[in-house]
Inverse folding.
């Protein structure tokens, strides 16, 4: 199992939170399209429509994703929350791609989750399984601990529950809780910063917030102007302009 970066989910400064996600620089935003946490290739799922119906997730799982996206990336004065910008749509789309089915990984075993993380992913579960089992186990824990599934908890309870999930202290029956959180956090970040053609980052909200120009043909004359606001909005691969 990989070790995920510990990112605070209660960071009040949205830009400070985002700096921890794009420490490699804003240009990294374009490179995170396909959501694999182990460096897989970018793929393009079918673009969601206005009334998006999840293709993989059940209604209960979809409610969890909507709530979790808004806890991990809350709405504030700088921009909309994770659910509004389409992070659940991004994750759902990836579940129907080879990434979601684990087809880009070697999954033949043997599996040794006790070994060092440098040796790579060591579970016999593909991302689709991680989400299905993880959401089910987490909702069951929330119901037992707080009396309701995650999506029905008050915001303060959701934050506290998410901290417990992040810490790995919760023992799940089917999947390590920290592993589930790692996939959820990684895919959330990718959906937030990826090109809108992948389902998330609607309206290029994250790009506008960090001043990333997208795939404009030429903005080299602005590279050597530190702290100068880029005067033109970003452009998506599809040609959409913000």
């Amino acid at each position: 199992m990989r070790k995920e970066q510990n990112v605070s989910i209660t960071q009040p400064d949205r830009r400070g939170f985002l700096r921890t996600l794009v420490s490699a620089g804003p240009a990294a935003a374009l490179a995170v399209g396909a959501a694999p946490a182990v460096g897989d290739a970018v793929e393009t799922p079918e673009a969601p429509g206005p009334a998006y119906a999840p293709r993989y997730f059940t209604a209960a799982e979809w409610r969890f994703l909507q709530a979790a996206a808004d806890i991990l990336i809350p709405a504030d004065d700088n921009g909309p929350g994770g659910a509004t910008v389409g992070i659940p749509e991004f994750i759902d789309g990836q579940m129907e791609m080879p990434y979601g089915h684990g087809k880009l990984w070697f999954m033949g075993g043997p599996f040794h989750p006790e070994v060092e993380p440098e040796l790579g992913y060591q579970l016999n579960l593909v991302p689709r399984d991680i989400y299905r089992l993880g959401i089910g186990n987490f909702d069951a824990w929330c119901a037992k601990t707080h009396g309701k599934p995650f999506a029905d908890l008050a915001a303060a309870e959701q934050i506290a529950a998410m901290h417990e999930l992040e810490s790995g202290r919760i023992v799940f029956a089917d999947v390590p809780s920290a592993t589930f959180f790692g996939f959820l956090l990684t895919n959330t970040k990718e959906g937030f910063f990826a090109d809108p053609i992948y389902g998330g980052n609607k309206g290029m909200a994250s790009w506008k917030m960090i001043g990333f120009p997208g795939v404009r043909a030429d903005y080299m004359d602005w590279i050597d102007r530190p702290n100068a606001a880029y005067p033109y909005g970003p452009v998506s691969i599809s040609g959409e302009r913000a």
In short: The two ends are 39 Å apart (CA to CA). Residues 59-212 form one domain. The first helix runs from residue 14 to 21.
